[in-house]
Amino acid sequence: MSGGGSNEEGFLEGLTPRRVGLYAVLLAMVGFYLAPLESGLMTSIKSTQAFASTTPFAPPGPEGFTIEPWLAAWESLQGSLFNLRGSLVNSLFFALPATLLSATLGSLAAYGLTKVSWRGQIFVFALLIAGVFIPYQAVLVPLRQFWSFVDVASLLTGVPVLEPRSDLIELTITHTAYGIPICTVLFRSYYQTIDDDMLEAARLDGASVARIYRRIILPLSVPMFAVTLIYQFTQVWNDLLFALVIVQSSEFFVVTQELNALQGALVQEYNIQMAGAFIAALPTLIVYVMFGKQFAEGVAGEGA
């Protein structure tokens, strides 16, 4: 009791006007950033009548509370729980491989550009830097023409599982290619902090370039893999522009396309749209929770 009392007294003595002002500013910032989420959540659990008669951030009363918007949004986005052609499954089908491939290839490219000496690597790195700054809008027309020329569906003839999903495979390859430059830049800045003496000692012991990557670089890359995986998965999952251009069949629409289709033609059902937005954002939240610790270490530059 005496220890708790002394801690409380110490805390109160430390509450200077400057610190109180700091706490007030921090609380105001928390409220500012969480207000849209709170309003969206409250809207998603209101009936249409309750939404029309209350402010968006006010919680619903007992008569206005409903989970029907969440059920309707899930039905529109995914259908039944085991529907393998729902938009959530379609998004997972292309987002997971695109994220893993771009992060892995970015790590390998960064290793080759940072810890392996060869002629022309500065030019290659300059091309990758340029790739980071190319906007999506600049490549939409040539991208559509390229995939029309390649015709992935005809290449996959005879593969029943993949042939109907040729649009999603094109989307996977596109996001992988587009994600490699930024992943390479992130990994390169991380690998530059790794001690060269350790790698030189491995070379003197006869380790090959591939063995050094597999036994030294890769284990040290876990925090940066967390950063790139979270960043890439969020970018790929939330993309709508490439999906609109590449995915033609409504049967294989991804979640952002179905979310865009939730807006009614005559009546705006904001509660269903908000519920759909939360459902669509759930996978990115799960990824962040799974790799949150490693993400913080990678951003802080720890682990190398």
TrEMBL record:
Keywords: Membrane, Transmembrane, Transmembrane helix, Transport. It is a multi-pass membrane protein. SUPFAM superfamilies: MetI-like (SSF161098). GO terms for cellular component: plasma membrane. It is found in: Cell membrane; Membrane. Its main location: membrane. The chain crosses the membrane at residues 20-37, 92-114, 120-139, 168-191, 212-234, 274-291. It comes from the Archaea. CDD domains: TM_PBP2 (cd06261). Pfam families: BPD_transp_1 (PF00528). The keyword Transmembrane helix applies. Coiled coil: none annotated. Residues 88-291 form the ABC transmembrane type-1 domain. Belongs to the binding-protein-dependent transport system permease family. This is Carbohydrate ABC transporter permease. It comes from Halalkalicoccus tibetensis.
